[in-house]
Write a structure and sequence with these properties.
heterodimer; A: alpha/beta; 7 strands; 15% strand; B: alpha/beta; 38% helix
Chain lengths: 254, 257
Amino acid sequence: MSKELEDEVAIITGSTSGMGEAIARRFAKEGAAVVINGTHQERGAAVEKSINDNGGNALFYQADVSKADEVEAMVNAAVDHFSKLTILVPNAGILGNGLATEISLETWHDTIGVNLNGVYYLCRYGLPHLIEAGGGTVVINASIASFKSFPQHPAYCASKGALIPLTKNLAHDYAEHHIRVNALCPGPVDTPLIWDSVKAFPNADTIIDETIAMTAAKRLGTPEDIADAALFFASKRSSFVTGASLVIDGGVMI
Amino acid sequence: MKSIDLSNKLAVVSGGGGEIGYALCRGLADAGAKVVAIDVNLDRIDQNEDQISGITCDLRDSSHIKATASQIASDHGSIHIFVHAAGINIAAPAADLDDDDWDAVFDVNLKSAFQLTRSLLPHFSSESTGKIVFISSISAKLGYPGLHAYTASKGGLEALVRNLATELAAQNICVNGIAPGTTRTGMTRGLWEDKAKCHAHEATIPLGRMADCNDHVGPLLFLASELSDYVTGQILCSDGGLTSVQADFIDTKLRNS
């Protein structure tokens, strides 16, 4: 039997660590050629090498997703290198934490720039290539912060919240081109980001243990849990699913 | 496709003799699971087949449900997956829908989901994350003339998904739902046999078509496999995008442009 993503080409932004890296590794294992992206040269090169050493096909492209020209150049480089593009995973995210009245305007704009504009830029420049390929899938990595507030995460929650209607809008507008667009909404997942996130909580020392106690499996999610869901949305298994948002949080939101 | 492997798993599918139910049984079996279909009518089940077997059960009979669960456990051992796909519809204007109709729909669609879960729970394997998947409907969230009992029962089913998920987390069982959009089955025959009506309806679906029963197999395999071990209490819409958009904008503004 064939692999699930044979002949697919994916760009996964923010894939030099955490969920993005797990998604890139999972997609590569299922046969997709993957573009690794991030701002950190050494980490990106290491992920690229590790995937290629394990029989995958990866290319690292250093770019800041909050800069439209860099994203456009990355998309062009991906198509030059792999001849086509069929899967977009806008995943890169930053926190920008602090009280709304205390964070700098720069922090606000940077957070919106990566978490929202970065998603838009990848779709803006990537979708025409999916159309050219005859179809594809977009898997937007949102968050449970799309639905729920967290202490001192104003820009993060606002930017993630915007991704849900964006997902639906893109799902609607590009369905006729056989492009499906869905969103992942991870809950507490063990990545470098979550350990920075908890610092903004008044109960920073205990919040992780309290959260774990609320989950079904009594554990934090793993980046691989999210990669599994990303694979579902990217593959033909979800052929009739578009515009959907899937919460992957071990049950803490219910 | 190979990454979902349900070998050595036992799946119980209520309504497994129905159109969507049988497609789901087939999908689970193709992924390697042993499947027990329970239904009032098992004509679709080939009793000579190894991987899918059937047990006749009246889902409106509480004691019958209990006995069926015990029989499955004694015949096959531990259960890993329970799918509640049983569902009936009795459509009538509110003024004409009598109590018996209401009760019949609620008994099969909602009450039996709870009774089956309750009866199967003691038999769930503790070796891996248990999986319970209720087949809801997009009608849990949308109104349709005449579908009072059906939509209300599906709404209840989605609430039950969340509630069971909360409690069964302690037992390492994930509980989720799939909300299919309009699917080509006998239940929707009136819609798809009328070409003009069908065309008008499909124009409101972003993916441009009604679902085939097999469209829901992928979502089920995802929710029944370890791919979704961190997902619980959720409803996944397998609806071609129908519930994500304001339908009247599709044709007029974009599809024709």
